[in-house]
Amino acid sequence: MTESHFEQLSDLNVDFFETAKNSLLDPLGLYLANDVQWIKLNENWNSLKFPVVIGGKGQPILLLHGFDSSFLEFRRIYQSLKRNFQVIIPDLLGFGFSPRCATNEYNPSKIISYLIDLLKTLQITKNLKIIGASMGGSTALKLSFEISDSIDKIILLSPAGLFGEPKSIPFPLNYIGASFLGLHRVRKSLCRQAFAFPDQCVGEMEEQIASIHLGCQGWRNSLASFAKSGGFAGTQKYIQNIPIKAVCGENDRILGKKEIKKIKKIDKIDYIGLQNCGHLPHVDLPSLSTKIIQDYFLE
């Protein structure tokens, strides 16, 4: 594929994002989406442009979203954080609104390589703070292992993938699984499961944001590729002497009580449990989560 073809595919991706952005029902989501910059990376990524939210001034914070999500999941804490920090929220490679034509393989190793190249492009080399939510927590630990000299502190929000081993889902089961995750009723169910009190907290805005990126070209293929890789697992082995705080919801039905108990027992993690909170502390309890983040990162 020629460079002009990659540019055309990238432009299609940008056009889709603009259409999706203008359809957002949540004003906080629109506010966040308006701060997206399209960052062109080097030839390792076919010189494509990637969507990255950048806003605020101060020490840099890198926010990493969860599995099959997008930067939009941080909509409820972004505006507060950008008052004190330079906030950087990329879509992880192969997820969100990122261009799927950057590579034929979507796996943890490629995601980490992408983040390292992105940080180099943005010239962020020290005092970096990271917030990783769900799978983004495992991503944060693996990234900090690779560039430990650049990392100051880490916050894990309901981290997933800290234990066990990667489990590859072979063809065709990976494609069947990706298609299943694209079904409207499945998306709706998963969205509700992430909240502590879905009947009160989940409506049309939340359901839209949980699924809006599915219209990106190549969504099914990239998700199937990631499933075949086995994804992130066993990432607690990457924990070093970098200060880490974990914030988990006591009503997390996705991680479950057994997983949360195991997280509590990790010696190098300072654990905080939040009552009346599900799998997404930054969405369920954004004001409290913001206070915890700011107190920890500014102390």
Please tell me about this protein's structure.
The chain has 299 residues and is an alpha/beta fold. The chain has a single domain, classed as 3-Layer(aba) Sandwich (Rossmann fold). The protein has 13 helices and 8 strands. The chain has an 8-stranded mixed sheet with strand order 1-2-4-3-5-6-7-8, with helices on both faces. It is globular. Pfam families: Abhydrolase_1. GO terms for molecular function: hydrolase activity. InterPro entries: AB_hydrolase_1 (IPR000073), AB_hydrolase_fold (IPR029058).
- Tally the beta strands: 8
The DSSP helix count reads 13
Second-tier CATH architecture: 3-Layer(aba) Sandwich
The CATH homologous superfamily corresponds to: Alpha/Beta hydrolase fold, catalytic domain
Succession of helices and strands? HHEEEHEHEHEHHHHHEHEHH
**Mean pLDDT rating:** 95
Largest beta-sheet characterization: 8 strands, mixed
Quote the beta fraction.
15-25%
Instruction: Please state the CA-atom Rg, rounded to the nearest Å.
Output: 18 Å
- Secondary-structure-based class equals alpha/beta
Coarse morphology: globular
**Helicity level:** 40-55%
- Assembly type of the chains comes to single chain
Distance between the termini: 50 Å
* CATH fold naming: Rossmann fold
The domain tally reads 1
Q: Which CATH class applies here?
A: Alpha Beta
Unreliable runs, pLDDT <50, ≥5 residues? none
Protein name: Putative alpha/beta hydrolase
Pfam families: Abhydrolase_1 (PF00561)
Keywords: Hydrolase
GO molecular function, one term: hydrolase activity
